[in-house]
Structures are given as C-alpha cells and as structure tokens.
Amino acid sequence: MKILITGAAGFIGYHLTQALLHIGYKVVGLDSVNDYYDPNLKYDRLFELGIPKMQAKKWNFEVVNSSGNFKFIRTQLEDMENLQLIFKKEKFDVVCNLAAQAGVRYSIENPKAYIDSNLVGYFNILECCRQFKIKHFIYASSSSVYGIDNEVPFNVSANTDKPVSLYAATKKCNEVMAHSYSHLYKLKTTGLRFFTVYGPWGRPDMAIFLFTKAILKNEEIKIFNQGKLERDFTFIDDVIESMVRIVQSGNISNHLYKIYNIGNNQTVKLMNMVNAIEKSLNLKAIIKMMPMQPGDVFSTLSDSESLSRDYGFKPKTELKLGIEKFVKWYKSYYQ
C-alpha cells in the first residue's frame, strides 16, 4: 500500500510515519510546518525521517529520503489545486488525515486558523478521497467533542452536539462531513477521538511538556480549576499501535462510517500527573493555582471497548512509565 499522512511533521503524524515505514509501507507526508509552536521541532522530526531541514523548508517541493520509501511535500491543505495534483500522481490506497490546527485555548484567540485548516483543508482532503476513490480515509477527531454534559466514561454513542470550544466544534464538523461522504459516495471513513496524547517528540503546548520545561527551569506552573481536573492520558506508542492496526486491517466493521475512542481507559487527577513529573525529575514544582479556563472540560475518560473488540488492542501504558520516557527524551533533546 501507498499511504498519505497529512500533518506528517506533527507529533502523531511523525510517529505514525516512522511506524509505517518500519513495517515496509511507502508513505507520502504533507505538512505546512506552521509556527503554532516552534517549527524547528517539526523540522527535527522530519530529519529523523530522513528529510534535510533546508529541503523541507521549500514549498510544494518533493523531497525523498535516502531509503526512497518516504516523500515529504511542504504544502497547505487549503491549496486544492496542488492537492489534486498530488493525489493524481501518487495514487494512494489509504489516507490518514492528522493535519489540523490544534489547541483548545488557541481557538479562542485565533478562530480563523481553525476554519482554514480544520474545515477548508479537511474538506479538500475529503473531496480528493472521493474523486480519486481512496479505499479508506482515517482522520483525527478529539475527545473534546464530548463537551461537559456527558458522563464518564465517554462512549462513542454519546451525544456530541454541545462542544464548548471552536476547536471541538471543528472536530465535530469533521465527523459529520465524513458521515455524509460515507453515506453519499460509499467512502469508508474511520474517525479517531484521541484522549490527551503525550510522549517523546510531543507538542510544546501540552501540559506535560509545559510542566516539565517549567520545573527544570525552576519556573512556576499554572494549575487550572485549582487542580480539580482529571484527564485520560494516552501514551503515543498506544495511539500508534491502534492506528497501525486500523491501517493494516482496514475498515473491518460492517459500517462505511465508524468512530473509535483512542484512550487509556484511566482517569488521572491533574495533581497526580504533576507529582509523577516531579518524581521523574527529582524536583519540586512551583505551583500557581488558577481558575477554570474557557473551553476546558472537568474530566475525560475513554470507553475503548469497540476498539478492543474490532482490532484486538486497547491502550494500557501507565502514566508513570509514559512520563519517564517523555522526560528521558526531553532531557536528551534539549540537552
């Protein structure tokens, strides 16, 4: 199979690309490498995949690694004309759409970025999948779609009509758009609701990354809602194992349209997460308690039984082990 991964320079996209290349697939990666967070981290991820930094910076320029199994193109999904040329030339079997403008809080400050990337760009990918008869379209959704009204654990059958951030609203739109394409054009679509993914090469705007950085610099960390928050933290290796199985097995359900939770099935109190980082660093955090942030939810917990039933795998990495692996990478990367 030849597989397209959008957002290939991103956290999950990088790890998925690496895993699929290791198995032996040919992969084409697209990414705009925007400056939402330090682009150098994205270029370093690409370098790990065999793409030189200077070549990766060129727009709409094809760069192939030395093994010849990974091609990278820096482009925007909003560029429909270029996207169609890529689809026509490459003849993909499977598309994994991980490109998106991420971040709940940033969606309050810069909502247009979410419309451009998460709606316009997403539509362009979806439409190309229809035009070029892609066998399976896999896309990133988010646990944010559950909002604040649902009881935990979150089940994929729960009502998700009340998002509390624009980011969550765009992810809900992605799911609805995929459903319409599955219904109208018989396109097989699989949506993945990720639950707080963390690990080596992670995003600098995520709490575990921010807290590790601040504690090492002896700077204060901000704890929202006075620490009374809970999250289902999901280690990156578990996310990638789930996705690889879905890529390899295809859509094995009897439905053209399917959604799965990708979560660790455990809820962790925010302060317990902080304590785990402190123990791994052997340092104490300077804590500043803050009120609840707009767009945040109080608790997340995944019901991943359908993933386990269909693909024989359920995320299970304990937070302590995951944080130890992240801290080891962080110290190595930032010396």
From TrEMBL:
Q: In the UniProt record, does the keyword NAD occur?
A: yes
Query: Its domain of life?
Result: Bacteria
**What residue ranges are annotated as transmembrane?**
none
Q: Name one Pfam family in it.
A: Epimerase
Keywords associated with the record: NAD
The cross-references to InterPro entries, in alphabetical order and at most eight, read: Epimerase_deHydtase, NAD(P)-bd_dom_sf
Per UniProt, residues of the NAD-dependent epimerase/dehydratase domain are 3-263
Q: Which PANTHER family match?
A: EPIMERASE-RELATED
Q: What is this protein identified as?
A: UDP-glucuronate 4-epimerase
